[in-house]
Write a structure and sequence with these properties.
Helix content is about 30%, strand content about 25%. By secondary structure, it is of the alpha/beta class. This is Apoptosis-inducing factor B.
């Protein structure tokens, strides 16, 4: 019987995969077993999925659904395909329970299970479900003539750009419940620039209004909450932001472990209060910053370093946040970027295309998965 103690990571997104890769380099494998648990046998690179669901692109699909077989450096880790539905916590460790009923003990636990999306980024957690989700959306977009996107954040804006690339003659309308697109984390001038950029593609924008349709589905016209009739609309698509996947955390640790928005409360070291052997990272943490893949990757690397420090009885480092920035695509050849440094720097199509719009950061993802 093995006497090794398990370091268990729940969720293989940007935070979990980067934490696993970093820990596989440093853990003493004679004492510890690194285990990464994820519902799918591969990691979906969400950054590129809006282009994938608009029209069939088999090569892109292969490139953004890479397995975890090369994440562990020198094979120093184990991947378990499964969905964690509950866990038990104690001062010296605990256990996680999978949907299959399997229990896995842990000495240290990392919660990086990500968020739950609606609409196009809301992929099911089975391989067959993922394939059906992609083909269903591609079919809906192909048939539709007048598409209404509910939500004008990053998802709505980028999806509108992808639609206009493939279907320039289809009518696309974004309905957003604020006075400007995006959210107030960004300066008004950036939000106005995003509107100008997407309108230049022929996309209509309705602000300060809502569409009370809670799912992506075909329709025969729709009326906004403000009374605007979109009579020819034949497809409504959810493009709102996600909600944290943390219900099982509250069940294990109590409602006080979560913020009012359902995010996991963490200390600056990304440990949970009263649970020094449990860390959290990625979209699930209660931290005053925008949820983005780049930040989640940084969380994962810090958590890995702090776990190693904890095992070595060393000093843990605090998370100091990251510079707010956003790079929005507008199809393959356009977009805009904002960096909250100096006076606030905004860049246009050339920069967005250079860093994101053309490749969708797929080379970065492939490197993280060990496929560079």
């Amino acid at each position: 019987m093995s006497t090794k103690k398990n370091i268990v990571i729940v969720g293989g997104g940007s935070a979990g995969a980067n934490a696993a890769k970093a820990l596989s380099r440093t853990l003493d494998t004679s004492k510890y077993q690194l285990i990464l648990i994820n519902p799918l046998p591969y990691r979906i690179w969400l950054v590129a999925t809006l282009r994938l669901v608009v029209s069939p692109q088999e090569e892109l699909k292969k490139d953004i659904t890479l397995p975890y077989d090369k994440v562990f450096v020198n094979g120093n880790g184990k991947f378990v395909e499964g969905k964690v539905i509950s866990f038990k916590a104690g001062k010296e460790g605990g256990s996680v329970t999978l949907e299959s009923g399997e229990e896995i003990d842990y000495h240290i636990l990392v919660l990086s299970q990500g968020a739950t999306w609606s609409g196009p980024p809301g992929f099911p957690q089975t391989d067959s479900g993922v394939k059906e989700h992609i083909s269903h959306l591609q079919s809906l977009f192909s048939k539709a003539k007048d598409i209404v996107l509910v939500g004008g954040g990053a998802v709505g804006l980028e999806l509108a750009g992808e639609l206009k690339d493939v279907y320039p003659d289809k009518k696309v309308t974004i309905v957003h419940g604020d006075k400007y697109l995006l959210n107030p984390s960004y300066p008004d001038k950036v939000r106005k620039s995003a509107e100008k950029s997407i309108r230049a593609r022929g996309v209509e924008v309705i602000l300060d209004d809502f569409v009370d349709v809670s799912e992506t589905k075909e329709v025969e016209g729709v009326t906004t909450r403000g009374g605007k009739e979109l009579k020819s609309a034949d497809l409504v698509v959810q493009s709102r932001g996600p909600r944290p996947n943390t219900e099982f955390v509250a069940a294990a640790l109590g409602e006080d472990s979560l913020s009012p928005l359902g995010l996991i409360r963490v200390k600056p070291t990304l440990q949970l209060k009263d649970h020094d052997n449990i860390f959290a990272a990625g979209d699930v943490i209660d931290w005053n910053e925008q949820k983005q893949a780049a930040k989640s990757s940084g969380h994962g690397l810090l958590v890995a370093a702090n776990i190693q420090a904890l095992l070595n009885k060393g000093a843990l480092k605090p998370y100091k946040g990251a510079t707010e920035m956003i790079v929005l695509t507008n199809g393959k050849d356009g977009g805009l970027a904002f960096f909250n440094i100096l006076w606030g720097i905004t860049l246009g199509n050339w920069f967005a295309k250079l860093v994101k719009s053309k490749t969708l950061l797929v080379p970065l993802y492939k490197g993280e998965q060990g496929y560079a």
